[in-house]
Amino acid sequence: MLSAESAEDEQLWQQHLDSSIFNTGPVIDMPVPASFNDITQDPSLENYIGWVWYEKEVLLPLRWLQGDPAPRVVLRFGSAHYYSVVWVNGVQVVEHEGGHLPFEADISSVVQGSPDPLCRITVALNNTLTPHTLPPGSIQYMADKSRYPKNYFVQDTKFDFFNYAGIHRPVVLYTTPAAYIDDITVTTTSSDSVARVQYQVSVVGSTANSLSLSLRDQEGKVVATGDGAVGELKVLNPNLWWPYLMHENPGYLYSLEVKMQAQVGEVLLEDVYTLPLGIRTVHVTSTQFLINGRPFYFHGVNKHEDADIRGKGLDWPLIVKDFNLLRWLGANSFRTSHYPYAEEIMDLCDAYGIAVIDESPGVGIKLPESFGNKSLQHHLAVMEELVRRDKNRPSVVMWSVANEPASELPPAAHYFKTVIAHTKALDPSRPVTFVTDANYALDRGAPYVDVICVNSYFSWYHDPGHLEVIPLQLTAQFDNWYKTYQKPIIQSEYGADSVPGLHSDPPMMFTEEYQQAMLREYHSVLDKKRKEYVIGELIWNFADFMTNQGTTRVLGNKKGIFTRQRQPKAAAFVLRDRYWKIANESSCLPPVITSHSFYLK
Ligand code: GCB
After folding, report:
1. CATH (domain of 188)
2. Known SUPFAM superfamilies for this protein (predicted)?
3. To test the ligand 1 pocket, which listed residue (303, 360, 540) has its Cβ within 8 A of the most ligand atoms?
4. Is the peptide bond before 568 cis (omega within 30 degrees of 0)?
5. I need a surface site. Which of 65, 189, 209, 544 has the fewest CB within 10 A?
């Protein structure tokens, strides 16, 4: 990887493309996937803002380059932060705005033109955020020469996590036939003894094609078949997809095998795609969230993609550890605060039955310019990418379009009305929310959402140190929102920082005891309100995470109930007792099971 001074340096750009970047300047080894920030000892790379370049040479199998018709060769990025331009053998193949979501390029014409199987992939990434990106940001130039060096600038953002950048998720090369299955959409409905799976398949590269579908259960038995691009499969006595702790066999997934045959010239092409499929329904009433017709209470967490060294880079051991911790905790859900998580994480949510509130990267939308048409159009495009990626996932039970925007600004009403309506049009099968700060008494997004998600930090940012105000203030918060909108409410964030190993009794801020005491105060109110219209509680945060440096952050945000290295703080045990207790009360499993034996089962 090599960093360039500025995008204007066209000569340098051309040199990077004409031959390997090894010929153009100093280059360092950079792992993929990973954030580049914490890989070296160089503080200027840690806080680097601007262009970085990656290069990789690969040898393609010869059979990818030949044939009549030759296969379609695709280069796919799981995500890269934030603005990416990609070249293959010096030819630009794709550009993409925004991190957290995949993008790909058909590179067939580039690689098949040359007899040489060597393929040089060059990527230029820029992590600069503007008022129109998601998340938004702005560059502040410090012109005062008596206080700052020449050309000094900082990236200003209004969100509370370190702005890691790099190629964060796997990059793969794959092939399809020249005619291929481009997209599948499924939705499911069910009654007690029969489920219906509506499907829609789109094929690219041929109009003369036939499609056949078969649905297999976990034993491999075919339980329904269909054909054509649009249709319905009927499943008798279905095994429904249930969230973790709501059923003894949560996360039941069928496999939908879609087979396409297409005549292209003289050749019959075949493409097969297998989609994991969960059968479940989601409904919202004025007081409840129903999964498969049963009331569902979110007892879960907010997370971040964040870890030592790799930053936001995908890390399988960490992912699996986190799911083990979630299940240890008795958590049945999480919110992908504050951006879409890796597909690998979402796959495990589907398989383990962890319900997900799938959040867009609409975090820190605070500047007035960020509510204009340019930003709005980008937000709509990002929702399209997110829905296209995650629409078939049973674990995704709700979309969240944003976190704590400055919704007190007048243009916020039109902005969020449009984003929410667009999301509902893209996916009428799921509720949509928008996460608000409890202080925004006048919330311009709330009239359009299905569920109110509210964040509050009583006794922390407000009345710091005064745990005794929580019952009154939290009760008022719930009553006010419910009275105004008559919609179910999730406490989508609450929390307190604790530095592991710091103790005091009586509890004082930043100690483990204070974090525990704050939880207990919140829980006493939540226990009353969950009998009425509160449908969930998500702790802020699952684990400590890195932020920008600041006077309120001690090596990052310490509101985790686990440390950044995934060791439990005292609060984790409070939450664990509570979540197992709630699970045992509300589950359809026999009520005799105690939390511990339930866990060991
Ligand atoms: C919030 C934000 C979250 C922060 C958290 C905090 O309201 O949604 O991103 O990290 O508060 O700890 O300040």
Report:
1. 2.60.40.10
2. (Trans)glycosidases (SSF51445), beta-Galactosidase/glucuronidase domain (SSF49303), Galactose-binding domain-like (SSF49785)
3. 540
4. no
5. 189
Provide the mean pLDDT of the chain: 94
Three-class SS state of 443: coil
Which of 327, 332, 326, 329 has its CA nearest to residue 295? 332
- Summarised one tens digit per residue, pLDDT across range 369-392 is 999 999 999 999 999 999 999 999
Largest CA distance in the chain: 81
Ligand 1 atom nearest the C-alpha of 403 is 8
162 and 229 within one domain = no
Considering the domain architecture, whether residues 331 and 460 belong to the same structural domain is answered as yes
CA of 462 to the centre of ligand 1 (A): 13
Q: Residues of the chain with pLDDT > 70: what percent?
A: 96
Q: Is the pLDDT of residue 569 over 70?
A: yes
For residue 560, the CA-to-ligand 1 centroid distance in Å is 11
| Residue range 122-141, pLDDT digits in tens | 999 999 999 999 999 999 99
Any catalytic annotation for residue 369?
no
The residue behind tokens 């001074």 is 5
Give the domain CATH number at 318. Answer: 3.20.20.80
| C-alpha distances out from residue 224 to 221, 237, 239, 255, Å | 9, 12, 13, 11
**Distances 166 to 3, 66, 93, 124, 507 between C-alpha atoms, Å:** 12, 33, 19, 10, 41
Q: In the prediction, which pLDDT does 77 show?
A: 98
Within its chain, how far is the Cα of 169 from the centroid? 12
403 CA distance to ligand 1 middle (Å):
9
DSSP for 480-538, written as a single string: HHHHHH---EEEEE----B-TT---SS--TBSHHHHHHHHHHHHHHHHHHTTTTEEEEE
CA of 101 to the centre of ligand 1 (A): 22
How far is ligand 1, taken at its centre, from the CA of residue 467, in Å? 19
Residue 497 CA, closest ligand 1 atom number: 12
Ligand 1 atom showing the smallest separation from residue 455 Cα: 7
| 507: in domain | yes
Residue 501 domain flag: yes
The answer to whether residue 210 scores a pLDDT higher than 60 is: yes
Nearest residue by C-alpha to atom 6 in ligand 1: 160
What domain range includes position 392?
Answer: 282-586
Domain for residue 593, yes or no?
Answer: no
Ligand 1 neighbours, Cβ below 6 Å, are 160, 338, 403-404, 455, 493, 540, 557, 559
The total of structural domains in the chain comes to: 3
In sign, the C-alpha dihedral spanning 53, 59, 63, 68 is positive
Give the predicted TM-score (pTM) of the model.
Answer: 0.96
Strand pairing report for 230-236 and 282-284: unpaired
